[in-house]
Amino acid sequence: MRGAPALAGNVLYVPISSAEEVLAADARYPCCTFRGGITALDALTGTVLWRGYAVGQAPQPTTKSAAGVQLWGPSGAAIWSSPTIDLKQQIVYAATGDSYSDPPGDGSDAFVAFRMATGERVWVRQMTAGDVFNIGCVLPAPVNCPPVMGPDFDFGSSPILVDLANGKRALIAGQKSGVVHAVDPDRAGAVLWQTRVGHGGRLGGVQWGSAADSDHVYVAVSDLVMHGAAAGEPGAEKAPYDGRSFRLDPAAGGGLFALSLETGEVVWHTPHPGCGETPGCSPAQSAAVTAIPGIVFSGGLDGHLRAYAAKAGAIVWDVDTKQAYATVNGVPAHGGSLDGPGAVVVGGMLYVNSGYAHFGTTPGNVLLAFSVDGK
After folding, report:
1. What Cα–Cα distance (Å) separates residue 31 from each residue in 20, 55, 142?
2. pLDDT at 232
């Protein structure tokens, strides 16, 4: 489980993701039998009310791998983020990840609508067909990788349900392809507009989520780029799956966009301020975005949390969280990269966790609280 559950009445809607995309890097692993979906729980008792799956067909045995292991498919379509509740239509919406094995699933890289009462799939709007990918595909000697490898264009972000000025509604989410999509939740996900904001890639495009107000959707771009490096080179890291050395490109990625809810038109774009000569720094802005009236917060892999003026995109506040802290519980702490969940704003305070150890990013172990005046 990667995304936060969503509560509506006395029912908790839990998004289900999986580690199978990583486990597939083991040639002995029978890839893959997982299907992403939503599980509905009675919030008072924990009783499972229903399970709904993003992929319509259950995995079946397919071929044998080169190692003689039975393979399965279709699989994948993990739901990495919180589902979105539509009380008007009594629908739960989710955006899904890629397929893990052949044949490709019909609900991967898609907006999927589930009926709140039963978990039945009401409609599916797939944005990237045939995207079959797992970590075994990127090893020096690939294992459990399909003959035609997909681009790994997951949706990692929650769909945002908004009301438009014309009286209609839109469901909006950014994809790792670098494209932000708006679909019509009242017409089976018919596409309203699509806007490219990034180059896209396995660690590119829009990663963990966007935010919206009554006029705009605010979208941060990752577009993280890694280059091969010699062991011991300044800023070099080792890849978690095969130990190859790499370094992050200090000039690639980042930036925050404001798009019109109605048309997807770019209203403003503020590039990342830059990494300078800092070894191992990346300008990628992968963390989920948070919006409050007049201000948009976006965290980056460089450890900075920045506040942008919602009207025109000027950076009005910037704090480097990548430093040592004296903590309230006395445990030594240090900040790092900001990735995954975004900042939380409540009761006049902003809370953000700092530290993310993955793909060259900087680990950390601290929860920070900021007041309105920044103390």
Report:
1. 7, 16, 13
2. 67
CA dist., res. 335 & res. 300, Å (int): 12
Report the phi/psi class of residue 274: left, alpha or beta, with left for phi > 0 and alpha for psi in -120 to 50. left
Residues 6+ apart with CB under 8 A from 91: 113, 114, 115, 116, 122, 185
> Which tokens in the block code for residue 373?
């005046």
CB-CB neighbours of 56 under 10 Å: 14
For the stretch 57-108, pLDDT in tens is: 999 999 999 889 999 999 999 999 999 999 999 999 999 999 999 999 999 9
Antiparallel, parallel or unpaired: β 245-248 and 237-238:
antiparallel
Edge-first strand order for the sheet with 169-174 is: 160-163, 169-174, 179-184, 190-196
Contact criterion met (CB below 8 Å) for 298 and 318: no
* Nearest Cα residue to 79 out of 104, 102, 103, 113: 113
In the 8-state DSSP scheme, what is residue 20? H
* Cα–Cα separations (whole angstroms), residue 287 to 54, 291, 302, 337: 25, 13, 11, 9
Is the sign of the CA dihedral 194, 210, 79, 50 positive or negative?
negative
DSSP 21: H
- The candidate with the shortest Cα–Cα distance to 286, out of 202, 168, 167, 195, is 202
